[in-house]
Amino acid sequence: MNLDISTYQKINNSFRKRLIYHSGVDCGFFVEMNYMINAMLYCLAKGYRFQLYSEDANYGTGKGWTEYFIPFCEEVHESFHHKYNLHRPPQWKRIIKNVIRTRSLSFVFWKLKFMQKSLMGHWLAYQAYGEYVRLSQDVAYNSYKHYHIPSVGINCTYTEAYAMLARMIWQPQPEVKQQIAEAKLSLSLPQVYSGIQIRGGDKAQEARLITGKRLIEALLPQDGDCIFALADNYLQLDIVRSEFPHLHILSLCQPHESGYYHQAFNHLTPQEKKESIIRLLTSVDILLRSRAFRGTITSGPSVFIMKVRAGEPSVTAIDCPHYMFPDCLSLSIDERASISREMMIR
């Protein structure tokens, strides 16, 4: 199933009520993209016109989404969205659990402060637009297993609906498209290759890291002897290359890279940030076209690739039981991290 931007825009613009989504708040690029696509699905299901605010995006240099991709919806530019249009916070049930676990009320105060900000955001939006407007924090998390949205021809599972929107918005700007093509050409990729993601850096604070060796061992001989690795630590690439000298392991990871740390990324110069994001987009574009892919359910790029390619037997996560895999992709980050931890200690 496919959906083109013009059809989406026609349907999206027909909705009277609207939601303005803030992209690039405080997470890595593909986690932010995952949130955004979920919000787009939410709006289609509820009949809300989806609009975007992204000019302050942490992955951009002042242009936001359109710095890398062609626009797919109307964008707004009012500056109050920077401070008052935020990701939806955890529900009170989780806040109380954290209070009990830490014996501290800091989570309660944080939640109350967020509620104040949310009220202010809705008030400022009403003043700016003369109507009640929903914001990012109004997107309720859901794990619908099936979506039926006749207006856009969606009558399918969550992952199929997600993939439809993801393919629609994955339209790089001409300049970026050219840079991606040049980077691919420099790699001399063969027609048949497989792919993996080796994640390091700050991900170790959230989940058990998976070695490149374990990922490669999960591939099959027919997947080819050329492997493209999305990696953030050059040393890990050297290690896995020494472990599999008979394989041709390619990557865009740079020799100076020692793991992705989101806080460090936020302090890069605008040019360094843009170059890093384009390398990431190139790597994911390559992996979207690989014969096979082995990834993890705890990393944004892996989850994005697995959702877009859902249903392909050659695309799997090694930290998720096979029978749980399709449903696992619709779970929250915390739920996926819990499944991954249990799987990796077996």
Q: What is the terminal-to-terminal distance?
A: 38 Å
Spatially, the strands of the biggest sheet line up as 8-7-6-9-10
Main beta sheet strand tally, sense and closure: 5 strands, parallel
Number of helices: 14
Average of per-residue pLDDT values: 89
Task: Label the overall shape.
Answer: globular
Derived from helix and strand composition plus strand pairing, the structural class reads alpha/beta
Cα-atom Rg, whole angstroms?
20 Å
- Percent helix, as a range, is 40-55%
Tell me the β content: 5-15%
- Total beta strand runs: 10
Order of helices and strands: HEHEHHHEEEHHEHEHEHHEHEHH
pLDDT below 50 for ≥5 consecutive residues: which ranges?
Answer: none
Question: What characteristics describe this protein?
Answer:
alpha/beta; 5-stranded parallel beta sheet; 14 helices; 10 strands; 45% helix; globular
How would you describe this protein?
The chain has helices at 5-12, 29-46, 81-84, 92-102, 106-129, 158-169, 174-187, 212-217, 234-243, 262-266, 270-287, 300-308, 325-328, 333-344; strands at 18-22, 49-53, 134-135, 146-149, 154-157, 194-198, 226-231, 248-250, 292-295, 315-317. It has 346 residues and is α/β, with parallel strands linked by helices. The chain has a 5-stranded parallel β-sheet with strand order 8-7-6-9-10, sandwiched between helices. A 3-stranded parallel β-sheet has the order 2-1-3, covered by helices on one side. Helix 2 crosses helix 12 (300-308). It is globular. The relative contact order is 0.13.
What topology emerges from the helices and strands here?
Blueprint: H1 5-12, E1 18-22, H2 29-46, E2 49-53, H3 81-84, H4 92-102, H5 106-129, E3 134-135, E4 146-149, E5 154-157, H6 158-169, H7 174-187, E6 194-198, H8 212-217, E7 226-231, H9 234-243, E8 248-250, H10 262-266, H11 270-287, E9 292-295, H12 300-308, E10 315-317, H13 325-328, H14 333-344
Parallel strand pairs: 1-2, 1-3, 6-7, 6-9, 7-8, 9-10
Antiparallel strand pairs: 4-5
